[in-house]
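In practice, a research group might receive sequence data for several interacting partners and want a quick structural hypothesis before committing to experiments. The following worked case mirrors that situation: the sequences arrive first, and a predicted assembly follows.
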Amino acid sequence: MQYDFTAIEKRWQERWAQLGTFRTLNPGDPGFDPNAPKYYVLDMFPYPSGVGLHVGHPLGYIATDIIARYKRTRGFNVLHPMGYDAFGLPAEQFAVEHGVHPRITTEKNIANMTRQLKRLGLSYDWDRALATTDEEYYRWTQWIFLQLHNAWFDPSKKQARPIAELIRGLESEQYLIDADGELVYAGAGRDLTALTGQPIGTRTWGELTQEARLNLLDEVRLAYLAEVNVNWCPALGTVLANEEVTNDGKSERGNHPVFKRPLKQWMLRITALADRLESDLSMVDWPEAIKLMQRNWIGRSTGARVEFDVAFSDGARPRGDSVDVGEAGDGSETISVFTTRPDTLFGATYMVLAPEHPMVESLTSGAQWPAVEEYRRQTAAKSDAQRQAEAASGQKTGVFTGGYALNPVNNERIPVWIADYVMTGYGTGAIMAVPAHDERDWAFAKQFHLPIRQVVAPADGKEIDITVAAFCQEGVAVDSANESISLDGRPTAEAKALITRWLEENGLGRGMVQYKLRDWLFSRQRYWGEPFPVLHAPDGRVVALDESELPVRLPEMADFSPTASDDPAAPPQPPLARAPDAWKYVTRSGTRYARELNTMPQWAGSCWYYLRFIDPKNGKRFVSAEAERYWMKGGIDLYVGGAEHAVLHLLYARFWHKVLFDLGHVSTPEPFGRLFNQGYIQAHAYTDARGVYLPAEEIQERGGKHYHNGEEVKQEFGKMGKSLKNSVAPDEVCDQYGCDTLRLYEMYLGPLDQSKVWNTRDIIGVHRFLQRVWRLFIDETTGNPRVADAAPSPEVTRLLHKTIKRVTDAMEALSFNVAIAALIEMNNELLKQYPPEAKDKALPIAVAEPFVLMLAPLAPHMAEELWSKLGHADTLARERWPSFDPQMLVEETVEYPVQINGKLRGRVTVPSDADNLAIETAARADEKVQASLDHRATDCVAQVLTSAEFTAALLILSPFGAINDKTRVVPKDAAHDE
RNA sequence: GCGGGCGUGGCGGAAUUGGCAGACGCGCCAGACUUAGGAUCUGGUCCCGAAAGGGGUGGAGGUUCGACUCCUCUCGCCCGCACCA
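A structural hypothesis for the assembly, expressed as tokens:
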């Protein structure tokens, strides 16, 4: 009876399903063990694609499955769920192209993907499976949106708080409203958000009209409507996220032109949490690279905001002098800038506004107006690619506005320019230019012959020539003094602090922190997404639905395609605009409200799925508090997925989680305690002379060259997929070798976090291993197990304990390739000890059972089969992982390598209890060692180095090489005490 | 340009605290068996050398009795960001 993987795998997959082997109990369920530690191991949420899985997809799923199975045998309650991120563009695009409703396509794809995953023997609790498109799921996605909408960010607490709490604060006049309509915290006596001067007249909540009150609240909500510049793709009929737009300004799907255009959109105030999103990265165990990417994306920089008074062309005016200056401005205008180098303020010789800056019009002189207008027109028309090319070349463009501003530190009148190297979206959209100490300003100043003034010198006193290059490092301030402040001689850090304080005292600015992170554009003009749980009143006001009115279901529609157009100015027409009136309008107390016609982006559903897995059937709450507290303690224990989600998904989900945390709905500040990035599986791809990709399975290899129908072709490699025609389906591999082989092969390919190349021909290696395991355990003629109750030899016992240690260590380190190698070695050795043809030598049960248990997470079907052949009626899924005895690792004799001056000169074998002197004597007696010592002085110092393990090194030093303090000396005897 | 990561046989990779480089697998070479197969088994396989021995972890230096491992420089590849003030 040979290893019949097809029958074995089918049998065990059916049994696991029948027995509910991998069903996971929640706290409170009968039979739940509250004393067992928990382990929540999660895969990144897959999109159920129509083309099915290729072998690259399950790489991470196999790894997490191995861990899940391993942890079960270590006594953990393991939560290991799977589900589908099923809303989104591809399903809808497919649906549009084929005229099938996206729900039908999606369900079909989910069924196929589930079948493919089940075939891999993954130990998910399938009872917890869910899809973001389930009404009972997106009901709670909408509920979370309501939480965001009904919350604001309280800067004094640095927390998201219910809007009702703000209203109470306003009613009790803890908060006032200043002249600009900004909130002022009365308790602290200083304003929180407004940055300029003193508010002239603050008002109380009671003094506001009802409309003003509602406006105020709408402005601070974490989900708010705003007119923003979006990527509008008329051909797709939707706005696109930045990441859906290519560098040359085309849509990633379909390569259609994309235009910037202001549209009223739902936004989520992720920027309010920027600070915590950054600092809380210190709480999680993630790859440093990913943390770094998030930090860069959030882009925190500390500096100061500085106010520059506008000075007009007829001459500088003292600050605060309100002079009517006619068409040029109203005289009280100031230009706010953000700088990270306030210490260089004395070196600011001009200013630059972004071309779109709102003050450009009032600043520009009549003479400069045509040039300014022309420049603004040009930059608006410029593609992102052009801008990037200019940026790379160091070429700067810009135009003088004719206007001037006053440098607040020295009242110097400096020209104000506009240039597209200053961007509207960051800081205030305006900068003070310090060409001596900023590369960009320097290049601009050189190009337009603007003055360059050095105000920082290198700390080491070195002379620099500021006309040759900008000096951007820190140093000491020079030529930076006025009547009331001097920075001269101060190191940069000190100078920054000093000038910032001076600015604050004089009401000219204040220290502040800036982020690159933008608020999250949350609307899509698509059908296949979560509807927003809000209504629009006839007066334009937004009314949020009540929780009890959820879910807002997607309407059934015959035509769900977006309205495409070639006209960039065409009005957006979301598909839901064509929904039946019965869906679109809701009448309440005689008023007719309109539903929101946009839908949520795909990210919405994936922001919280890990919470729903905990309690997927709960109809009362998005997740039960008790189950959430249990499973989320310390965050998810292991979250495995690709690095492509480094910033977007992982940042969005953290943001939602923190809001839910602040509002008391979840118990932990961070969702993902440990993150692991798997590498990609790549595959060879082949092109013919024309550069056209050829199906990889039709290629023959001869002598290192590759041929297709006899023609030599070029070998490349890249991510597996349709476009490179190099996909391999897991189904094919399962048919030919079985999924245990596929699982082993994928893990044996190399370290989990590295990318690796798929090589179908290598699969045979691990398949042979499984066949040899089978032959070790099973008599192929009778089908009976070849085991006996006999005691294993000391050598075999040592081998067993050594292997247990190696495999256990490798499991903990997620080094599955190493774990498999250790099992292969053990199996090879056992086959030598107990060869199948030797009928009298049977495998001792004391060795057979632990071996099977170690194999089980990796090749579970074969392990279960062998386990039952060994006479066990139950599944091994919850058997205890074997343990090793360090005592058993000690060999009777030890082979020591002998190093002389660090070079290997010989090997000696001594009894393992030999002392240093005995080892040294044996070493000195060795011929080769003697030959090496011959031409040296005789009075060598010998040192025996041992480790806690069975290997050890003997070191003999020549006389001049006395032991220095860097040499770690472990006395032989001490090592044995461990 | 800035930031991060990685370079070990023909290939994938292993090597715990700085202490025997190349475990394990593929491929290749030689052989065995044979119901002739893309099966199985045995042996070999870093380089130079007949051997003794020597060299060797992208390259060049350095620290150390001793470096794949630590430091400096450099080359190559991969990833992220991209005028963020």
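Before designing any experiment, note the following. Residues 145 and 223 of chain A are 7 Å apart (CA to CA). Confidence is low (pLDDT under 50) at residues 188-200, 314-331, 947-953, 957-978 of chain A.
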